[in-house]
Structures are given as structure tokens and as C-alpha cells.
Specification:
The protein has 3 helices and 8 strands. With 143 residues, it is α+β, with helices and mostly antiparallel strands. The chain is globular. It starts with 8 loop residues before the first strand and ends in a 10-residue tail after the last strand.
Length: 143
Amino acid sequence: MNMWDDDTWLDERASWERLAGERLGRLAFHLVDEVHIVPINYCAQEPRLVFRTAEGSKLLGVAMNSDVAFEIDGIEDDGGRAWSVVARGRARILRGDEVREADALGLRSWLGAADKHQFVAIDVDSVTGREYDLVEPQKQESV
């Protein structure tokens, strides 16, 4: 089978299920004239993703340019099948009642940082996913 046959695409529902089943992904954002990619922990709340952050490059980047992408991927437990999901949308810093609602999600820094007081939502415009058989089975190491 060709790795990119049409049957390797995940539909939107399956892509959101993958997003809901994970907690760590990568955020791609613009900062001035560069694209940055950073790991973040998040919560999926279709049709948005929510994460918390401290003052710094992520917050500055999404304030200056809300156009972002977010990606998760994985390898199935048997090591023979891999998948990837990409969400694209607009990031916005949450305010007021939305902050209280986001705080109730229980998002905590995976680094243990206590200074991540800002909540950001990615209002997802599109989500796509792929899954495919690996030529050589892989074992995914636990983090």
C-alpha cells in the first residue's frame, strides 16, 4: 500500500477523537519573521484547543499574529501503525468568564511551572489527520 492512499486520511470526527485522547502536542506560531514550534500541554474542547502559558514568546507571538498550527502524532501500541493530526486556526488570549471556565479544565504545566497564568484558545478552522502502516514496526518510548 502506498503510504498516502486516500484510505489513510482520518475524518474530522476521528481527528478530534485523537486530539481529545492526548495531552501533549506542538504549537507552531509566528514571532516577527520566524516560525516557532514548541511543545505544550493542552485540552481539546471541540471546536477549540486550550492551553496555558506564561508571559513570553508564545503569548507575544499569538498576540501579534493569531495564525497558528498545532500537531500531535503517535505510534500504536503494536508499533506497526502511526498517525498524525494537524489543527489550524486562530489563537486568542482568554479573558473574563472564559478564563474561569478554562481554569476548571485542570490544565497544569507539565514542567511544574507555577507562573503559567495565561490561558489561550485555538479556535480551530480545520483539522486533518492521517494514519498509515509503518514499513518497519517501531516501539514508542514512554516519556
